[in-house]
Amino acid sequence: MQLETPFVLCVLLSQVLLLTSAEDLDCTPGFQQKVFHIEQPAEFIKDQSILNLTFSDCKGNDKLRYEISSPYFKVNSDGSLVSRRNVTAVGRTLFIHARTPHAEDMAELVIIGGRDIQGSLQDIFKFARTSPVPRQKRSIVVSPILIPENQRQPFPRVVGKVVDSDRPEGSKFRLTGKGVDQDPKGIFRINENTGSVSVTQTLNREMIATYQLFVETTDVSGRTLEGPVPLEVIVIDQNDNRPIFREGPYIGHVMEGSPTGTTVMRMTAFDADDPATDNALLRYNIRQQTPDKPSPNMFYIDPEKGDIVTVVSPALLDRETLENPKYELIIEAQDMAGLDVGLTGTATATIMIDDKNDQSPKFTKKEFQATVEEGAVGVIVNLTVEDKDDPTTGAWRAAYTIINGNPGQSFEIHTNPQTNEGMLSVIKPLDYEISAFHTLLIKVENEDPLVPDVSYGPSSTATVHITVLDVNEGPVFYPDPMMVTRQENISVGSVLLTMNATDPDSLQRQTIRYSVYKDPAGWLNINPINGTVDTMAVLDRESPFVHNSVYTALFLAIDSGNPPATGTGTLLITLEDVNDNAPFIYPTVAEVCDDAKNLSVVILGASDKDLHPNTDPFKFEIHKQAVPDKVWKISKINNTHALVSLLQNLNKANYNLPVMVTDSGKPPMTNITDLRVQVCSCKNSKVDCNMAGALRTSVTSILLISLFSLARL
User: Fold this and answer.
1) Cadherin domain: from which residue to which, for each copy (predicted)?
2) How far, in Å, CA of 480 to CA of 569, rounded?
């Protein structure tokens, strides 16, 4: 990094940090000179000595280490300050920190004529180069205390001193604030007599960067004499945190054929050190690329922003020719602006080369052959294609279309989603006698449109030749079903019709024989030669095998092929009704009390299995009376019901009353049924029919049942 303007160094002494006791009065630990002034040269030359520093810990300087705030300089073991490389601008202020196990100190170099750049500790410490906090009519003098983080034992150690030139005799210093008497407590303390400020433990800048303390003087009773005066403790950052990538996984996508310089993704690392210093100034770098074909440098990362971009030509970024469309990059982030002394952190960036539809599907051959038996349906051939695009995308998935040769819509084609093959199917049975050969022209395209500079060529169409195989087809009845209407009860042997079946195999000369397949009632017979159907039993419309006056039978037509083929035909016989069923009454039993005031016995209903007009209106009559005349009476209620009643009370006994009912057919049919009436003793709400017989049906119940039946008509 090069900055433009020359500048000047001026040096301000930092706070001397002592790790040793002050027992050796002949030696003062620290730098002998703490302020240096260096004029900015036109350029600092690499390895050229700038000045010599002298530091002593009064214990032999064992394990002496130097740290400097700028990554462009270093201090050699002999104390010479040199530049790591040729550089023109480094900032206005540099801080040099010397440390041994026994003592440490800070010196400051100020370059005259310069300007600030990132990393100057003037910004880090927020320390304006001024005299101690100005005060009026106060004698307490404090200066900000600078303490490096991560100091090692021993503790406590003196880090600064407060001076009060006018402090009364016997007065004491008192230190307060966060880090003293407020959480976190006990980190700092002050010698109440001398004003020396000590730190009791290692500090961590990433947890607390500054402490705002207050100093005051008190009398022996604890009353404040002067103050409080603010005392700022600044924790100097050390490069003790590696950059980390916190947002993974890092996955980027770039379209194949993208122009050189296309941004793929951005990598961003985090460094917990002070962002105002080079300790957190990151630089990015690609450490490894896998695979390394077709170029080991397919991508470049912006060292400052972390943007990953393509650096190869669009032709090399061709997914179909790459060994692997997935690249893995090991990205390194290094602090200290990328210098060798910086700490590093790494992460893996995965970059997918996405497919675009730049490859049209092509049939593996121009012509396909298929055979299918006439009458069959289903897949007859699989058409194969090749497509170099990504199989997981619509740029690879094929869509097939029959563009010629399918006027009857007998064929259709679908894509097999696993193999991308075109499955050509017959969906309407083919007839060999009509056409023994079919020729289809089929095209294939992708689900996604092709890119503008690619088009479908001749290889995207293919011809399918289909051969239809002749099979022995069963005879066909026409019409099917056949329908005929006849009266029931026609004489046995009556001819109903002649079944007609033809053989579709017109090119073959075959004979047809007929037989009965299903005849539920066993009424029919068919001539095996000519197909004439006649009756061999009486047809009965009221049979349980007849539904809604229609009787259904099935017949077979069998050709003489090898093996023979069979066709099935249906015959529907509609049976017309004749008056061949007499009506019947219900109920046939009843009860009545011997002392009943209501002489109604029962309401009779009538029913007939025939159809209108061979049913109601019905005529109800008493056929014979075994008792004197005018004991029983029957009265019409409507076309289907009548009321039976007594003209007088009868003794307890069983009585049989012959009831005659006649339908309205021509000629009419009559039925006589005995109505059994039990005359019972009815006392105290109890019905006793023992003397009359075993039946216990009450007259009231029978009347209710009869009335309910009547109400439904």
Assistant:
1) 147-245, 246-363, 364-477, 478-585, 584-695
2) 6
CA 156 to CA 154: how far, in whole Å? 6
- Please report whether residue 13 resides in a domain: no
What is the per-residue pLDDT across 285-317, written as a single tens digit (0 to 9) for each?
A: 999 999 999 999 999 999 999 999 999 999 999
d(CA 94, CA 110): 6
Q: How far apart are CA 585 and CA 598, in angstroms?
A: 23
* Distant-in-sequence, close-in-space partners of 367: CB < 8 Å, separation ≥ 6: 462, 463, 464, 465
pLDDT at residue 691 in the model:
58
Q: Which residues on neighbouring strands pair with residue 182, listed in sequence order?
A: 178
Q: Of 240, 124, 232, 106, whose CA–CA distance to 179 is shortest?
A: 232
DSSP-assigned letters across all residues of 539-567 = --TTSTT-BTTEEEEEEEEEE--SS--EE
Q: Report the alpha-carbon angle 111-115-120, nearest 5.
A: 75
Residue 387 CA neighbour count, 13 Å, CB half: 31
CA distance 215 to 382: 93
The rounded distance, in Å, linking the Cα atoms of 506 and 436 is 14
* Token pair in block for residue 333: 């982030």
**Is residue 215 within 8 Å of residue 161, measured between CB atoms?**
no
Structure tokens at 653: 């006994």
- The ranges of the chain with pLDDT < 50 are 1-25, 116-137, 693-713
Element (H, E) at 516: strand 512-518
Amino acid at 393: T
How many Cβ atoms sit within 10 Å of the Cβ of residue 421?
Answer: 19
Residue with tokens 């462009």: 72
3-class DSSP state of 459: helix
Count of structural domains, the chain: 6
Separation CA 607–CA 661 (nearest Å)? 10
Give bridge partners of residue 329 from the DSSP assignment: 289, 349
Residues sharing a CB contact under 8 Å with residue 238, sequence separation 6 or more, in sequence order: 67, 148, 149, 150, 205, 273, 279
DSSP 646-658: ESS---SEEEEEE
Domain boundary pick from 419, 435, 469: 469
Cα angle 179, 184, 185 (rounded to 5 degrees) comes to 65
Torsion angle of alpha carbons 432, 433, 434, 440, nearest 10°? 20
The answer to whether the beta carbons of residues 535 and 523 sit under 8 Å apart is yes
CB atoms within 10 A of CB 283: 21
Same domain flag for 158 and 200:
yes
Residues 562 and 627 in one domain: no
Buried residues in 359-384 as b, exposed as e (16+ CB within 10 A): bbbbbeeeebebebebbeeeebbebb
Q: What is the pLDDT of residue 130?
A: 36
The answer to whether residue 136 is domain-embedded is no
* Domain-embedded: residue 171: yes
Q: How many whole angstroms separate alpha carbon 574 and alpha carbon 492? A: 17
Question: Is the distance from CB of 213 to CB of 159 less than 8 angstroms?
Answer: no
CA 560 to chain centre: 61
pTM exceeds 0.90: no
**pLDDT tens digits along 107-129:** 878 777 655 444 444 443 443 33
Q: Specify the amino acid at residue 39.
A: E
Do both 253 and 346 map to the same domain? yes
Spatial separation of the C-alpha atoms in residues 400 and 425, rounded to whole Å: 12
**Structural domain for 41, as ranges:** 30-112
Residue 563: what pLDDT?
A: 87
User: How many whole angstroms from its chain centre is CA 285?
Assistant: 37
